[in-house]
Amino acid sequence: MPITTTEKIWMDGELVPWQDAQIHVLTHGLHYGSGVFEGIRAYPTAQGPAVFRLKEHIARLFTSAKILMMEIPFSEEELVEATKAVVRENHLDSCYLRPIAYLGYGEMGLNPLSCEVKVAIAAWPWGAYLGDEGVENGIRVKISSWQRHDPNSVPPAAKCTGMYVNSSLAKVEAVKSGYDEAIILSSSGNVSECTGENIFVYRHGRLMTPPTSAGALEGITRSTIMTIASDLGIKVTEENMVRSDLYLADEMFLTGTAAEVVPVASVDDRAVGTAKPGSVTKSIQKAYHQAVRGELADYKEWLDYVG
Ligand code: PPE
What we know:
Elements: E1 8-11, E2 14-17, H1 28-32, E3 35-37, E4 40-43, E5 50-52, H2 54-67, H3 76-89, E6 95-103, E7 117-124, H4 132-137, E8 139-147, H5 164-176, E9 181-185, E10 191-194, E11 198-203, E12 206-209, H6 220-231, E13 235-238, H7 243-247, E14 251-256, E15 260-267, E16 270-271, H8 279-292, E17 303-305
Parallel strand pairs: 8-9, 8-15, 12-13
Antiparallel strand pairs: 1-2, 1-7, 3-6, 4-5, 4-6, 5-17, 6-7, 9-10, 11-12, 11-14, 14-15, 15-16
């Protein structure tokens, strides 16, 4: 999806003009995928723009960095404040935010421990990641021929840049085959997640999502949806599922910061339920839409006002 430029990007402690946010071609992260990142959204609320679950996203940036033994040269509080400043200084009402910490220029080779860690935070307006039509009517997904990497090859718990080659291979395969998105299975055949979203299945009166041990990211939207669904009186469990469990789902939807809540209409050309978004999906989608905009009193603690 093309980027809409904004005015300023935060780089290593200061806001610089968008076009000046450049790095050297021998940046370690470019060659070896040695970076960790986040995807965050800010939404308009009655009290002005607010970043959704900002502290949790920045905390996950640090846990990803810990797995890679990467020392981020800022505190979590500093990056929380920097993220808010990026929204404020770009005069954005709603946007997608991309904090990234990566190994910079100065060292090459596979022992990066002495390499400088650089940090940047960019923001831009971003519409429905999987399309407005998909949000409304559901998308068509395909089980990928690519497997999620095993935790002993690249740990899926680290939201690390290099890991996304796996997601990208699966996405390209799905799109070239005429589908909207791919579902990736673990090497043992359990449902893991999509290329950039977690998966929820509703069947037999309960909502299920794969455990992180199946290679699913500990998604912040996933955790938000688990809370919202329980509060709506829906039973939610973390469970391993195989591909036929998806074929037999009554309802299914995907969750992610960029994608938000997207119904699934079919899996490998087998209709999910009636192939139309079901009532559970719709009520969760609606509550999520309201929660991120500060319209539900119970979830206001998830908002960080930009000020
Ligand atoms: N799994 C993966 C692999 C993933 O990348 C994401 C986020 C999720 C699950 C959902 O996590 P959360 O956003 O915390 O609910 N994907 C981000 C990147 C998308 C991109 O194209 O880049 C996102 O949604 O921001």
